Task: inverse folding
């Protein structure tokens, strides 16, 4: 038959090594034992590679493959540092240099690698409390962190926050043990205990808070710089400084009494500052008035004495004339403004004179006081000199 072997073996396609088309069955990739034939797989890969490479897989093709592989490997060393980051290049795990923002290249892995931590982010460490949680939800560790002894041997419950950022990424990653936040927290707690231990409780609760914050910021920075930690401490903020919860009510009553005492003292000082200047002003005014009165009295007395001496000198020289002039001046001063008119009957007439409006006019000018005619008064007064 046509599909039988010409060698006369008599093996058909069902039981022999031949198939109906006269070919042999392909060799199995698995040997009779069932394990994979790695050598056959490698041969097939080599044949496929020769077909793909130019020149049938010669030396030129292998060199080209090597060059492409090297270029791809070298390209893995390109890395980018963002504006808020610093690049830390490691060579076999050792820090060798730091790069700034931009596109950089280092030797590809496994020789070198790069870390890019963010250095502009503001980090915070809370001590004595947890952000967003109520005071009653604090853990035992937080309660222990917050209790501190003051300089006058009182206990206060302190909660504060440290704000910090990375100043040098290389020092930050390799000079202090990770997690670095633990180191920052331990340093901050130690420094705060030292400062509170030198501060009286009243100062810590009231006016000394600002000083404590500034001093804590400076000392924490000094300690971290001593560690060469590459950390910049921006600020320390006291969240609260209170007596322990067991005695806080009584302590607040004491504080209220102290505040009342201070308020009363301020009110008394304000009243004294108001009254004392007024009293001093009145005293100065009375003193000035007294001095002015004294000067007035002295000047008047001196004037009267000078006038008396002047009159006496005139009297001594002309006694009659001076006496008469003094009499007339005195009578003029006494009778000035009187409204009555005295007529001497011995001068003649019936004693009735026509009405004249002169006295009324004179009264209006003199305020209604009587007028005496000097001529009539001199005759009518007779011998009253």
Result:
């Amino acid at each position: 038959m046509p599909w039988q072997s010409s060698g006369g073996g008599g093996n058909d396609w069902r039981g022999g090594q031949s198939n109906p088309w006269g070919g042999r069955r392909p060799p199995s990739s698995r040997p009779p034992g069932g394990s994979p034939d790695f050598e056959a797989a490698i041969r097939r890969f080599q044949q496929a590679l020769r077909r793909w490479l130019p020149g049938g897989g010669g030396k030129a093709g292998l060199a080209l493959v090597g060059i492409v592989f090297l270029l791809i490997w070298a390209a893995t060393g390109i890395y980018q540092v963002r504006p808020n980051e610093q690049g830390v290049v490691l060579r076999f795990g050792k820090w060798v240099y730091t790069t700034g923002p931009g596109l950089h290249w280092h030797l590809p892995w496994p020789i070198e690698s790069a870390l890019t931590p963010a250095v502009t982010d503001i980090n915070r460490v809370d001590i004595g409390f947890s952000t967003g949680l109520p005071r009653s939800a604090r853990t035992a560790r937080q309660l222990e962190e917050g209790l501190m002894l003051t300089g006058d041997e009182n206990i206060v419950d302190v909660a504060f926050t440290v704000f910090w950022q990375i100043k040098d990424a290389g020092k930050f990653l390799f000079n202090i043990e990770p997690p670095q936040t633990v180191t920052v927290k331990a340093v901050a707690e130690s420094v705060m205990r030292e400062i509170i231990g030198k501060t009286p409780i009243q100062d810590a609760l009231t006016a000394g808070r600002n000083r404590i914050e500034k001093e804590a910021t400076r000392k924490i920075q000094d300690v971290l710089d001593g560690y060469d930690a590459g950390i910049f401490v921006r600020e320390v903020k006291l969240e609260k400084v209170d007596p322990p919860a067991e005695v806080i009510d009584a302590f607040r009553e004491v504080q209220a009494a102290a505040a009342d005492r201070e308020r009363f003292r301020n009110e008394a000082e304000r009243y004294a500052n108001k009254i004392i200047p007024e009293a001093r002003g009145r005293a100065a005014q009375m003193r000035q008035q007294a001095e002015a009165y004294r000067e007035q009295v002295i000047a008047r007395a001196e004037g009267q004495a000078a006038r008396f001496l002047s009159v006496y000198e005139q009297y001594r020289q002309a006694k009659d004339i001076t006496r008469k002039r003094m009499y007339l001046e005195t009578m003029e001063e006494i009778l000035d403004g009187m409204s009555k008119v005295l007529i001497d009957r011995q001068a003649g007439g019936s004693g009735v004179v026509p009405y004249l409006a002169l006295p009324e006019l004179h009264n209006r000018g003199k305020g209604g006081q009587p007028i005496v005619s000097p001529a009539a008064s001199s005759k009518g007064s007779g011998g009253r000199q």
In short: The first strand starts at residue 78 and ends at 81. Confidence is low (pLDDT under 50) at residues 1-31, 368-385.
